[in-house]
Amino acid sequence: MNRKKFLQTSSAAVVGTGLLGWSCSSPTPSNGTGLKNWAGNVSYHSREVLYPKTLEEVQEAIRKLKLVKALGSQHSFSTIADTEGTHISTAALDKVLRLEGNNTLVWCESGIRYGTLAKWLDDKNLALHNLASLPHISVAGACATATHGSGDRCGNLATAVAAFELVRADGQVVVIDREHPDFYGAVVHLGALGIVTKIALDVQPAYQVTQHVFEDLSMDTLSQNFDAIFKSGYSVSLFTHWLDRKINQVWIKRRSDEVYSQSLSDFFGTTSALTHLHPIKSNSSVNCTDQMGIPGKWFERLPHFKMGFTPSNGDELQTEFFIPRTHAVDAILAVETLHQEVSPALFVTEIRSIAADQLWMSPAYNKGVISIHFTWKPEPDQVMPLIPKIEKVLEPFSPVPHMGKISRLTSDQLSSRFEKFAEFRNMVKNYDPERKFQNAWLDEKIF
What we know:
The protein is of the alpha+beta class. It has two domains: 96-206, Uridine Diphospho-n-acetylenolpyruvylglucosamine Reductase, domain 3; 208-411, Alpha-Beta Plaits. The chain is 21% helix and 23% strand. The chain is built from 14 helices and 19 strands. The chain has helices at 3-8, 55-64, 114-123, 139-144, 183-186, 219-224, 226-230, 328-336, 339-342, 380-383, 386-394, 411-415, 421-431, 440-445; strands spanning 48-50, 68-71, 86-89, 96-100, 105-109, 126-127, 161-167, 173-177, 195-202, 204-205, 208-218, 235-240, 246-255, 271-272, 296-297, 317-324, 346-354, 369-376, 400-401. The strands form four sheets. Strands 11, 12, 13, 14, 15, 16, 17, 18 and 19 form a nine-stranded antiparallel sheet that branches. It has a five-stranded antiparallel sheet with strand order 4-5-9-7-8. A three-stranded parallel sheet has the order 1-3-2, covered by helices on one side. The chain starts with a helix and ends with a helix.
């Protein structure tokens, strides 16, 4: 995204009203004309868009339609949510429903944004285990694509899923919980199994977080101290422009109820930031969450941007690759060899860590991973030729993409990198034998 424009967009319109000011939550004309993702790089091909408010309305629509796809907060940069049939938007399915299990579980509707849910939970002194960098994304869409925050001990957002309600291709409803035989294959479902209408997430007591930012970490120091740096906080992010063999900024988020062995007084030869910073230092930090070690509520520190932040129609492209943690340093240095080509087309790269999980289509299935995320300038002629070059230098480390971001990796490549790829394909065929939820993206990446 053009970050200056991204940050200059006023958040005043949504202060005190959740996310009502976010343009992408507004209904789109029913014929789908002009419907795009929030960054504007994907134009959807749907003939109409429906906005059901109840489970029964979702069931009725699915039974009647021949080709259909769920549409959440329109945050994906790939065509994963595209369809030539009908979009069923979850925008009106945006309520918190109830707490269960002695307040260890929250049920909500699938279209609710994390920013809305987080505030509701915090008002009851509860919290989620982690959040992504933006709080504007829908819960079900983020979980379906294994979207994540950062933290050596933090699984992606889908690891908090305890159960969900799914409408299958025949309109029948199935509730899939951790006792269901399909659970671990169905949580990260990539929109291929049906439409999620409700979802249950694990919650815990609320906590506070401090956020410290350090500048100018050398690549050599990172290579020698990689694990220690990522263990220095509950959530750690590295930002680089791939210039001068440096990590430009290190963002360390610490829970106030935990003790960390790594001192921040002299952090690996870096300089402590003297004021709040944006990941791109030249941009205003006005919409970034507070730093400088100031304690704050979990949902006001774990994202990089404030809850009232309005993303507008972000002018950017995004790519992200996951690498097994054992290859983290080598993979980062491999990308660094392309710095002369990458830097001119780039806004910033973020490097994060994600804990292992048991979800079949999660990039962290049975292994901890790091993610290397590229926020590109909106210049596809310059950016698109770089993506296969990055994929090539990462090839020795078996990278897998974030399915909601731009990638050139094929189904043949992916099938060898996801251990349960064949099982997932069979599950899709079982849940959607008439290919009602299929689209060109699934045909290319999965089938």
